[in-house]
Amino acid sequence: MIPAPFSYVRADSVDHVLSLLVEHGDEAKVLAGGQSLLPILKMRLARPEVVVDISRLSELAYVRVEGDEVAIGAATRHREVVDSADLQRDVPLLPYVASLVGDRQVRHRGTFGGSLVHGDPAADLPAAVLALGATFVIQGPAGRREVPAPEFFQDYFQTAVGEDELLLEIRVPRVPGVGWAYEKFTRRANDWAIVAVAAVDNRVALANMSMTPMRAVAVEAALAGGASAAQAAQAAAEGTSPVTDMHADEEYRGHLARVLTERALVTAAGR
Amino acid sequence: MSIMGTRVVRVEDPRLLTTGAVYTEDLRDPRLTGALHLTFVRAPMAHARILSIQTADALAFPGVVAVLTAADLGMEPMPPAMPMFTQTMTTSLLATDTVRFVGDAVAVVVTETAYQGQDAADHVHVEYDHLPALIDLREAASDAVLLYPQAGTNTVFAMGPAELDPELFAGCEVVVTQEIVNQRVAAAPLEGRAAAATIEDGRLIMWVSTQAAQDAKGAICRWLGIEPETLRVITPDVGGGFGAKIGADPDHAVVGAVARHLGRPVRWTETRSENMVAMTHGRGQLNTVTIGGKRDGTVLAYRLEILQDAGAQPRIGAVLPALTTLMAPAVYAFPKVEVKARSVVTTTTPTAAYRGAGRPEATHAIERGLDLFAAEIGMDPGEVRRTNLLPAFTEPHTTATGAVYDTGDYAVALDKALAASDYPALRAEQERRRAAGEEKLLGIGLSVYVEITGQAPASEIADVELRPDGSARVLTGTSPHGQGHATAWAMLVSEETGVPMDRITVEHGDTDLIPVGGGTFGSRSLQQGGAAVRQATRELVELARQRAADLLEANPDDIVVDTARAGVHVAGSPDAGVSFAELAAKEPLQVHTTFTSPGPTFPFGAHVAVVEVDVRTGKARLERLIAVDDAGTILNPLLAEGQRHGGYAQGVAQALIEEVRYDPEGNPETSTLATYPFLGITDVPSFEPVDMATPTPYNTLGAKGVGEAGTIGATPAVHNAVIDAVAHLGVRHIDMPTTPMRVWSALRAAEAAS
Amino acid sequence: MQVTTTVNGEARTDEVEDRLLLVHYLRDVRGLRATNVGCDTTSCGACTVLLDGESVKSCTVLAVQADGREVSTVEGLAAADGTLHPVQAAFRQEHGLQCGFCTPGMVMACVSLLKDNPRPTEHEVRDGLEGNFCRCTGYHNIVRAVLVASGQDPK
Predict the structure, then answer these.
(1) pLDDT reported for residue A57
(2) Cα–Cα distance, B236 to B509 (Å, whole number)
């Protein structure tokens, strides 16, 4: 299948992107690696009039250590996240999770920011950045703003990035030596997660247990209260509202959340 | 040294690895210059009356040449081709008044480019009046909703006794019964369906991605109401078939109809999303298995009740229960076997052959059933099988359902598989993990199988010509799509003549060149097509000897083949010889022959699967597959093993992950490769094939078929292994595919019951 | 719009529709039809080519995105004298292909994998090829071919 017709514009700067977004509003879509957008266009689930390609904006592709944080440009490809020595040292969860996104070909094109802006609750990176407590830097006509991760993922496939805005950067705290784990449960290796759990120290985030990735607040509270991993994990499904689909019903997803949370906490504690 | 039985690498590969094959979509035949592109408009709902079709909007799109419906093309409902089917279930190539599955073809858009076709097809507006969907097989069998009201029934085809024998299980100490789903799966060859068509000198020329050009021609002629001499079908390279490309589909005939209607060349390549709903699916049986016997493991009676999902149109799938019935007695010496079968229509994609086609269902039913019986009497699954296996035989054995097995030694196959897997060690490791309370449990599953190959047609042609330039040309009625016929047939000719393999060309799949041919399906190619090539070659050599005798003024009996010179010489006088090329230069040296097998052959084997099941999540993973497959004498182990590997993977896929699913309204839930869990490379281990070769006397090669062994043996072995892993926790059965949620649900139910 | 690409070493400029997918550009504009389309959802990998040396699914890249880039397809892999690339040779030797439809993409995915990991384990081979489907081989001989191409004995 092939996309409906559109006009392609290759952006030469962030300002250029923003002016195009202001001009075309919801008729424009930002194209970075295209690994989420192009399948949607081909299935004609979206029919934008204008596609704005940001994949050549080198100013959006970087991994930089800045003080207590690592700053990752939104158009940084998964492959570069996987290979980043800075991230491997300071935020090892991210290279590991990025290595599970799609397949090699997808990781050669797909971008860190693109995956996050897509807002798929079953995706891997949203849960990871949520567990890490990332901050999102968003640029719009009114200027630049910073959004903490819990407020970034707003609804099913919907994030805090407005139609006339562009995600520039994701900032994650450096956590060298802190225990981490990512437990992804799939049907096949390169499928989307049926459920996944990211753990960083005692912070836990769940993928595909709600319309958005979410923190397992009850688990974290139980851990803070001195519960063991196994005990705390029992609370993993609290407050979740997972979908029922052909892979899993709500009850099974709740069960998986508990099992995977326990495993993630045990692994994180051992690292 | 003979090349027979050696690992000869394929002559096909250099081309496929460099410039790529030429599939139908790749054709740049001058006769297709300027070909228009055809895009189907398909029903988006499972069952509806068509109230109107508005084509005006679509016609206004750029590049649109025509938008055509059944009315435009003069298509009328026709009865099913098979006489045993309910003849009032009539269908037309494009829907006339009713659509019966999501994907049913309603209209075609003809455009200058493929991109334009999709744009315009979105704007053909069809007004539908919803009718109830019919997904559940038992509901379909109840005839509460009729898919073809004029038929008065949803039953397409039925066989077996009118009444079940009430005394069948008399005298049995133990009787177990279980409903077993053999789920619907997609063949999903990586190349979907495709066709191209043009008119040349008043004839319709069609290129079709098919497993059998001659069958395709017959079907298209029937659908279009044209005479055989007015149609030529040509088969380009074919990117996999697995049974779903036997002959032609109605959609292919539509391509021909449009070319005739417009008088212009047209081409069609379906998208994957189209393929998943509009190419026939496979399997789709609901089987009720009942086994009765003694506590010592002896089975006294076996009953199989088959309910086959035919899908929305009566196609090959509806008749497959006949093969399931034929193979129901399997490898066992059961005194009594009773099979009753029925095929019903539903509002789903029509079903047809898929690698094994009716035989995997038979093997699966009895192999799963025997494990249930073994569990009931507390006996090892291997022991139960051994207790009931037919003894080795070399004279034909006739079964309770009338199959005549040629040769078999099932106990040896089982023993080899158990030995190669170190079965006792596996059981010990299983016990250790259970005792230690480990989360990753081990499951061991067995299957012993016999299948029928080369069932129909029984004959195949071959035409071999030795040419003055020293080359050879082979025409075959078989139709390769990955099996390596060009290599195998060249081996056969080279072996007998000494013509080097790289001087031998093999041609197939052009109905002008090869009007009669059976195609490639049912694991028939080597044992019939290959046997025909050998027969033709030997007849050709005989002809050459006669001619050489005249030429060399010798007695024909004194002329011997001299493969070193690719010719013949007088016995004892190597210098007094002549090459085939020299003989061919004097007079064409060509033989056309037909080989007819005295009967189908019955390959057999035994598989052992080892799975690991995460007892907390329910996820099962295949760790090992040890497989004995006896397909008679092996011509080229490289090719035979390749066939086995591919079959294993598809068999494993059915046991563990693959399933075509519909929601209750008949909407497909697995209509892309993102949603259909096509088996991936990380889902399987490397396999462990074990050799065994019991020749058949039915052809001079001693060959039986090997193409479908893998799916037939692997599915029940893997399925049994998953259940075996959790059997000690009280789980008796889990339907396929054994997805994590199914396994977890079964574990939970068992826990609640205990 | 205009795209200038170097495909298998040959630079060219073509006028293309903005929405044209790279795979269709290669097949229909460049006439390189070894690369196939097997799905609509970036799942099967049949269309895998190298873009600036990295494997990508050419059904999920716009032709215009390849502007100024280098593309390599299986047609450009063998040496000028016809000698097969080690991956091609190993696929033949180990019978890593049957119908051939997945093969061009599979071979290019293997070339990319071995570039990053010249001596992969069996596990790494399978992991590295998770984005490529094959319906014929059960993957068994594909894995063997990659091991052989990397100079290892697959046993």
Answers:
(1) 97
(2) 8
